[in-house]
Amino acid sequence: MAMLGKKRPPRRQSGISGLARVPHGEKAPPESQAPEAQSDAAASTVTVERLAHDGRGVARSAAGKTLFVTQALPGERVEVAVHRTRKRFDEAHVKRRANDSPRRVTPPCAYFGRCGGCDLQHMALDAQREHKVAAVRELCARQGLELPADMEMLATRAEDYRRRARLGVNVDGQGRVLVGFRAAGSQRLVDIDRCHVLVPKLAALLAPLREVIQALEAPRRVGHVELVDTAGGCAITVRQPRPHANDAERWRAFADRLAAQGVALALLEGRDAPRLEWLGEPPALAETLALPGLAPLELGVAPGDFLQANAAVNAQMVARVMEWLAPSPGERYLDLFAGIGNFSLPAAAAGASVTAVEGHPAMVERLAANARRNGLDLRATRADLNVPGTAAALLDETAADALILDPPRAGAEAICRTLADAVSRPAQLAYVSCDPATLARDVARLTAGGYRIGQVAVADMFVHTAHMETLMLLEDIRQPGAS
Known about the structure:
This protein is an alpha/beta fold. It is about 20% helix and about 25% strand. It has three domains: about 70 residues, CATH 2.40.50.140; about 190 residues, Vaccinia Virus protein VP39 (Rossmann fold, 3-Layer(aba) Sandwich), CATH 3.40.50; about 110 residues, CATH 2.40.50.1070.
């Protein structure tokens, strides 16, 4: 799911890399960090009616104004204080709870309420997943879309699942070096030495990494640190726009320590054209996709490549899309926003003739290399889908029988407009989305143009957050043989 032809837009951090804020305005800080109320209204007691899409409780003030209440669950009677007043709604935090919802649990992470990530830990896991399905259904209903009564939930374990993360580095006013994730609703860093959702190999790196950064002569010159763990190897990438010469030896010594644990260390240095330098043997970073009916596939990655955070749920998503589309020899497939080949390579392995489209030259090279690595005949090509007419030209050129669409959060509105109006178009379309709001908008356009929703699944890619992936299979009712 890579951006085509341009960088991803900046996203307000929510603690762990890759998790962005969702609608309803900025999110309220947790009660332990909530600012003083910005209005003159005294604290009031309200009953939480339901959950907003971002997981906050929704209540009504005595005057009837909507309140979004952080860390409040339906059915709870809570005393709240408003900390941000807006025209149509207010944002509030809990001062006291009169009762607990039966779906409230003790958060498993010691940093809950300070770190801005994993902000649904106070909800039981089944409640989190029911909420995600309900959010997809409601957002689609707003666009006039009716979804199947039963929607599959793709999920796995609730801890130790995240295989990539980005850590911020900062030096506070007292000179303390902080290494961690962003606080809720803030750019302030929360210093951490453990994380409930990181895979064990990455979690074990947090404390020694913080130790070495705190020992640097110029820790302020470290921008951020990226961690990734794959089946082929584990790596740390340290971003330093302005490296300090006196710290080079410290990083090399740390790289030697890491190498004994099977972890590689790289420095990404410079501003405009940063240069990646491995301090030791480069790792063989690669994802392994094991899917029913296919030999295992290896997808090589490099630091900075988009890689789904949850390997087990990603494999379930790919398997479901392959099951729905059932690619076979002789069929033509077009995969837009193809990334490293997450969906392209399995379709090609099943025998389909695949054209995989990416926007960045390096990603196109990675796609082609991954195809060669697995002995697959796949056409990897570069195109900017933001340019008007590009999608139409690709559809005409490939005459695809099926289309896989896995866009960034902004969705693929222009592409869906093209599909809706096209005379010749794929009979099947698998849309994989990380934002149900833009998915609903785009699918409404497709259904108005003659596509029908066939299958829907929700993937709990980011456990303990309000974020999810949604998969939809759409079928062209204008095609011969469509039921």
